[in-house]
Write the structure tokens for this entry.
Amino acid sequence: MSIRDITQEDVDQVGVTLLQRAEDDRTVYLRDGMAAARREAEALRQEHTRFRDRLGAEHPKVRALEATANGSEAIARWAEETVGRTERRPEVRGDEWVVTGRVAAPREVAEAGLTVELADRDGRVVEQLGKVTPDARGEFVVSARGEEFRDLLTTHPDLFLRVTDAEGKTFVAAGTPLRPEPGRLDHLEVTIEAEEPGRGPSAAPGRRRGRRPPG
């Protein structure tokens, strides 16, 4: 095949293949890292117990060992959660657009109830997509497929994530626009910060990652 024979579709497919391979490798590395962090944490806990019995719980070395063990356990939990989110990611059909995401919020905000919607630049909610309630992990999925969404998937309007609470307060209504496209998966993560004195909770802009899955 000469360079002249290469089409944009060929280039896109190579990009998708490389991205998928990178995600598969990332999952393997995360699993290995998770196992290593757990082994390290277990060894540190044993050392912590041994030195605590000899030196006392408040000794600087004992406290440093405890902090390091806590750090290793936190790394293991993060890796486990990341692998879990990757494995729960839905398969995307060629005629379907899917948005997955996670809303990390203080417990009191999450328990009060949050909803996720997509709106256009003028703030009009795309009623076809409906309102989605994040699950206990804060994860959500919005999808568009079929004749009902033909206009949405062919006009590719700029859409924005909007997260609101039970009282109608909007936490996120901006950020990088999403453009509906058949066969595309977009992922966003939103962090709602804890309430500060004199101010309500606030949200950090969502991160976006998109890919067109193979086949």
Summary: Residues 196-205 have pLDDT under 50 and may be disordered. The chain is about 40% helix and 25% strand. The radius of gyration is 22 Å.
